[in-house]
Amino acid sequence: MNINWYPGHMARSLRELGEKLDQVDLVIETCDARLPESSRNPEIRALIERKPVILVLTKADLADPDCTADWLAWYREENVTALEVAIPERSGLGRLVDAIQKSGEDVVARARSRGLQARAIRAMVVGIPNTGKSSLINQLAGRRVARIENRPGVTRAPAWVRTSSGITLMDMPGILWPNLGSERQRLILAASGAIRDDILNREEIAFATFCLLRERYPALLAERFRLTAEALADNTEDPYVLYEKAARRRGAVLSGGRIDTDRFARLLITELRDGRIGRISLETVSDRALP
Fold this sequence. Notes:
The chain is α/β, with parallel strands linked by helices.
């Protein structure tokens, strides 16, 4: 999977992030609950560690709840303040506000000790593209203040946002890093939508995702793509033959009976991202040991 980035742009974004850290009291880092560790930019993590950090696992409504519970337990063991949020249902937002206010208590206490009126807590919201930063900010603000699209690269410049809960948020653009980790990590980042679709091989990503789902979620795959459990469990079956069979059963066929591979790749990836295949996690806690 060949992916080319623009290190100059990334370096400028990271430099700006570092410069603005002194203007905030804490950092809210968003990651995708379906792939929590792979959707965290290690260069952002290195910069923000000098501030209190709340890790928010967004899109929890799309992730496998058992996997999410495992991740939260692991983060607790690592002394990371982490919680999951399902933005469409507003689930977890109250707990997030409480965590922000608790983290900002020192700011309030310092202001009062100097006889000053306590100002609003200031939190920077960071993360890689398409991890729900803008949706989260809109929900916390109680109004639409950040542009939302289901694609990366929408937030272009830092912006301050006031909320009704006495918290001021700084919305930062999403920042990827040059190599994007291992081949496995690049695959699941692409499948989740963190990488722009116009710079990757969609059919390669779709087939690799199909194989991952066959391994981990065969029942969901069988139901959505009209395959039998026996066929998915047959290790002697060529996986690409199964992939083509799924394409035929979903109507991705050209004249003459040929498979419309581009159409099926789009369909599979779109349905995965929208949660129509089911609640699926692309990364488990045990995957941390994988290359």
